[in-house]
């Protein structure tokens, strides 16, 4: 599409209508008349060749196309507005805030120190608050009660949440250095013979099982889960002193201060980690993807 055909002012009106779900309320936000808002939405619809809203009762309900458009347009407009601000420079050292982050339990133990180190170096007056992800995390993101969530799942996210890819993490088996298994790689058939210590996913969904369990089940292979826990450190302490092995990510095993070795599972693909945040702060957190914290 030729960018000359799109008036950026129309996108500004679109964002207002999308958020307010009402032409009249959008007009109040924009300090223009309701007919003017209606006309601008009509122009944008004609330019894009797509239906943007449908009237349901007294609300303008966005179409799936609008949901996708909003997720892409709002961060850009927000970033443009910030770039055009005059006489103001972002100085992290002057900020005194609490940065609230929910993290997947597999990520929390090793990423928290790295985040804190960066915060102390760049914004020493601020505070880092980290918690394990929970069923209330998505609601808290939407309500701006937390700033960011870092997790492995991005399906079924509400339209007001933006997910940015951070990295892909290698999946390994962590075990004590003296474990009888003397290999650097293991097959799924061999995995069936081992006793597994697993992170309990009840923190996210009590009915959910891990990707490894699902994969073994789909292949018709047994898996012997001898222990479940929500504590990653408890998990690692257990495998460090027993013959249980723990499926985890390489940085998790590396973060343990005892002697653990890692055995790779070639049949299990690496898993992507994503940062999830509300649209209004997605631009602020996007540099995290290139910060080197995950390398």
TrEMBL record:
Q: Pfam families in the record, alphabetically?
A: HTH_1, LysR_substrate
User: What keywords sit in the KW lines?
Assistant: DNA-binding, Transcription, Transcription regulation
Residues of the signal sequence? none
DNA-binding is among the record's keywords: yes
Give all residue intervals belonging to the HTH lysR-type domain: 6-63
Gene Ontology molecular functions: DNA binding; DNA-binding transcription factor activity
Q: Which family is this protein grouped under? A: Belongs to the LysR transcriptional regulatory family.
Question: What protein is this chain from?
Answer: Transcriptional regulator
Species of provenance: Vibrio ishigakensis
